[in-house]
User: Fold ATPase from Niveispirillum cyanobacteriorum.
Amino acid sequence: MKRFYREVETIAADGGFTLTLDGKPVRTPAKLPLVVPTQALAEAIAAEWAVQGEEVKPATMPLTQLASTSIDGVRGRLEAVAEASAVYGESELVCYRADEPAELVERQATLWNPLLDWAARRYDAHLLIATGIIHKPQPAGALKALRAAVDQLDEWHLTALQNTIGITGSLLVSLALIDRHITAEQAFDLAQLDENYQIEKWGEDWEAADRRAVQRADLAHTVRFLDLLR
Assistant:
């Protein structure tokens, strides 16, 4: 859409901070007030609007999108979003291992086992390792512990978790990122371990490279969103 405003400002609002376009408060796609919990996040969102040219391009406004998702898509659906996120623990990515080649088996153990150890310490969630792709049920206590961890998140952090799961396909990697136990780059490498191995052996086509670049950028935006919530 064409840019329809000149001035962008950040102001205090009920429940936090918002931004105005030529004095009018911004609303989400669902027409709800775009109010965020910290001034830092509001200012960063305002900056996204301020740098738009003649055309307003939502794809270049990741913080605006994440905040709007929190308000429109997560706040009123905390239980459903938490359930949809926690279910990834039942088929946790880092629990499923190759049986060959030995180099890949060793790499999975070296990089993924510490994450399982962290989950056991942090949440008392002791997950089982399986070889191959046949589903292996996880202990009910471990799944309950992971669900409890997800349930503790507010709409802002749950949005970040949901977004990260969509990129990584892993609940543990996503929780570790939300908890700031790992960086965005580490999260990407953990989730892409198998693919990275295949690329080392056979190379990478341009479509895969573009997709991975977008995923890296999305993770970086998610981490910035988390930082601005502090």
In short: The two ends are 32 Å apart (CA to CA). The domain at 77-228 is CATH 1.10.3580.10 (ATP12-like fold).
